[in-house]
Design brief:
Helices cover 16% and strands 44% of the residues. The protein has an 18-stranded mixed beta sheet that branches. A two-stranded antiparallel ribbon has the order 19-20. The protein is globular.
């Protein structure tokens, strides 16, 4: 029958087209493996020119080599240096390894199975005019980059399977405030991107005078049928763990509305967000030996110890917050009552009422180690004990 013959011809055409495409893919992959990558060192000057033109600052690459295992090649770059406009070294990458992913042939774009960076040194500087420079790039000058180019860069970045940075260092110099330089050492960053998930973890060690090593984590998901780089539509949880820090160091780099002298503190924060807006937040705070002066004409308040949990939530009708203190001790004053306070605010007014009761909350946190600790999910939040019946109400001033 004629329709059967037409169906057979269409099927043969599909098969031949598929085989032809597969042959082209294999030929391109073999050309890359044995024709281009073994001579990649000869392309180093050309790669430096393209990188310098794309980034906007001079880029120098010390050496390029290729490691190949089966069908997946890996590039090794040594001594990659970016310099700022003055010629000073702004970013140094002693070792960069990039393993290509087979998905590159399907999407016709470079996709990486892993991007590994070791011993990176990054300089972040704010000049006297208030302009921010990151790795030699003036962010004020980069503001002229079109949104399409920025979206394409973010899509590529959040489409790579894994990006790892080990034993890095970040140095912050504030020329506008003439503050001492701040350097974070042993910086570890892990970013894992799935089909719709994006998990990130950052660990860094501040100077000994600032406190102990801290961790930041984020576990997010993107909507269905959305671009990977459209982070404003993501939904997820952000977690911060600062086990110990000297709160008095903040005044050197941040303008505070009050005077803060001495003291140490710790913070654990959970922040749930959706579509570039936060929905709920929970913070466990501990302060020790803090001296606060709210105004020059007001006597300083010395707090020997204070700690508790603060929760806040946001909905279309407004916001709500509820602190639960686990007790506080003020010097030269009797200990205050252990209390819980709850307030509700709206867009028209700040707060309506607060209810005080004599209950003690639990500020303990139950943490769990993930099987993959570099990008583990934020630990769960333990609920505080229920408050006792309220004894009275007080309206805020």
């Amino acid at each position: 029958m004629p329709w059967r013959r037409g169906l057979q011809l269409a099927w043969k055409a599909v098969v031949y087209a598929g085989l032809s495409f597969l042959c082209l893919v294999v030929l391109a992959w073999l050309t890359l493996q044995w024709g281009i990558l073994p001579h990649i060192e000869d392309w180093r000057p050309e790669l430096e020119r393209h990188a310098s033109r794309a980034v906007g600052v001079p880029v120098r690459i010390g050496h390029i080599s290729v490691r190949s295992s089966s069908w997946i090649p890996a590039l090794d770059l040594r001594d990659v240096v970016l310099r700022d406009a003055s010629g000073a070294e702004a970013l140094r990458l002693p070792r960069v390894s990039a393993a290509l992913s087979p998905q590159s042939l399907l999407v016709l774009s470079p996709r990486l199975a892993q991007l590994y960076i070791e011993d990176a040194r990054l300089l972040v500087r704010r000049d006297a005019a208030g302009h921010l420079h990151v790795g030699g790039l003036d962010l004020a000058a980069r503001a002229t980059v079109s949104s399409a180019d920025e979206a394409a860069t973010l899509d590529w970045f959040f489409s790579q399977e894994e990006i790892v940075l080990r034993r890095g260092a970040v140095r912050w110099i504030d020329e506008q405030r003439a503050a001492p330089a701040l350097e974070l050492t042993d910086v570890d960053v892990v970013l894992r991107n799935g089909l719709r998930s994006h998990d990130m973890r950052v660990d860094a060690t501040p100077p000994a005078a600032w406190g102990d090593r801290f961790a930041l984590r984020a576990r997010t998901r993107q909507p269905l049928f959305s671009y990977a780089g459209d982070w404003r539509r993501w939904t997820g949880t952000f977690y911060a763990d600062l086990p110990r820090g000297d709160v008095a160091q903040l005044k050197r780099h941040v303008d505070l509305p009050f005077q803060l002298d001495g003291g140490q503190g710790s913070l654990r924060l959970w922040l749930d967000f959706q579509n570039n807006h936060w929905r709920s937040a929970t913070a466990d705070v501990q302060l020790n030996g803090v001296v606060v002066r709210l105004a020059p004409q007001v006597a300083p308040l010395a707090i020997a110890h204070a700690g508790g949990r603060l929760t806040a939530s946001r909905d279309p009708g407004g916001w709500r917050w509820r602190p639960s203190t686990s007790g506080s001790r003020r010097r030269a004053a009797s200990p205050g009552p252990r209390a819980t306070c709850g307030c509700r605010g709206s867009r028209r007014r700040r707060a309506s009422s607060c209810a005080w009761g004599g209950a003690r909350s639990s500020a303990g946190i139950a943490t769990r180690r993930s099987r993959r600790p570099p990008a583990s999910r934020p630990p769960p939040r333990r609920r505080p004990r229920p408050a006792a019946p309220c004894r009275g109400t007080t309206s805020p001033r």
